[in-house]
Amino acid sequence: MIRELERRAMPGIPVAIVLFVASILNTLALVRAGQANDEPRAVIWGLSMAVLILLWIGLFMVQPNTAKALLLFGDYKGTVKRQGLWWANPFLQKRSISLRVRNFETAKLKVNDHTGNPIEIGAVVVWQVVDTAESLFEVDDFENYVHVQSEAALRGLANQYAYVAQTDGEMALSSHTLEIAERLRGEIQDRLAKAGVKVLEARISHLAYAPEIASVMLRRQQANAIIAARQRIVEGAVGMVESALEQLSKRGVVQLDEERKAAMVSNLLVVLCAEQPTQPIVNTGTLYQ
After folding, report:
1. CB of 106 within 8 A of CB of 151?
2. In 10 A of CB 62, how many CB atoms?
3. pLDDT reported for residue 279
4. How many CA atoms, within 13 angstroms, populate the side-chain half-sphere of residue 105?
5. What pTM did the predictor assign?
6. pLDDT tens readout for residues 92-131
């Protein structure tokens, strides 16, 4: 594998000043040689001017958070990362690459979750080039490589987890957003190890059931929510009735036989578990009449 080699180039400002002065002096000498019809000197100063023009080509600028990869006849020689004006061998090819943080949003992918339900999922990926040599020479078009591999990692992650947890403690796409985001970042980073790219963040930006089953799954979620709520209501009501019977018995407020206890429990459960407000009925007789 080609690894990044950070290289230092010559400061460009001093070189530019020297080349500027030399170019002026060379131009004046060339003009004088031409006026004097001194052909040998004119040829010499003309060749000198060509050399100066070639040296000017060696100047290059590095913008903040960018880098220049240097190649000599196809051979990688290093990367200049320090911003500013620099000078290097004019025969070096200088390829620019951005080191800035980038982000993109994947397309909304239609995949099956771990339970086989079709879902739509999309993600936002934040990434940055950290090894210019790998990005430029290990993969072809590293930006497209990042996009394709990120979508592939997202598909693989969606297949590993269910949209909604089926059991208590199960990790699901809809409920464990932080954990899923961290695992997605790790999956993408593993796929981009050869591209010289570091994934800073990856998180799900869109998650929904596919249109063909969305209405059915919504009714299922509503039914599950109703059942869960009913279970909590019944558990609470039973606890309240049990507490009421214990308090009455301890304080000796009233002595109840088993039949009266059953009637009291029935009435309290009706009151506590009913969806609508209940209306009291005053019994002026006895339970046995």
Report:
1. yes
2. 20
3. 60
4. 7
5. 0.69
6. 999 999 999 999 999 999 988 888 888 899 999 999 999 9
How many CB atoms neighbour CB 236 within 10 A? 12
Outline where the chain has alpha helix (H).
Answer: 12-35, 39-57, 132-137, 142-160, 177-191, 211-251, 258-273
- pLDDT over threshold 90, residue 288: no
Provide the token pair at 14. Answer: 């001093």
Question: Cα–Cα–Cα angle for 2, 146, 157, nearest 5°?
Answer: 120
Sheet with 10-11: strands ordered across: 10-11, 84-87, 59-62
Q: Looking at this protein, which amino acid is placed at residue 159? A: N
Domain boundaries, the chain: 10-97, 102-209, 214-273
3-state helix, strand, coil in the chain (%, to 5): 50, 25, 30
pLDDT in tens, 247-257: 767 766 666 66
Tokens coding 28: 């004046």
- Cα→Cα distances 51→23, 41, 174, Å: 10, 15, 66
Based on the number of CB atoms within 10 Å of its own CB, is 209 exposed (0-12), middle (13-18) or buried (19 or more)?
buried
Q: Which pair of structure tokens corresponds to residue 4?
A: 């990044």
Rg (CA), the chain: 39
CB 147 within 8 A of CB 104: yes
d(CA 240, CA 268): 9
Helix or strand or coil: residue 194?
Answer: helix
| Band of pLDDT at residue 135, cut at 50, 70 and 90 | very high
Place of tokens 């690459």: 97
Is 102-209 assigned to CATH 3.30.479.30? yes
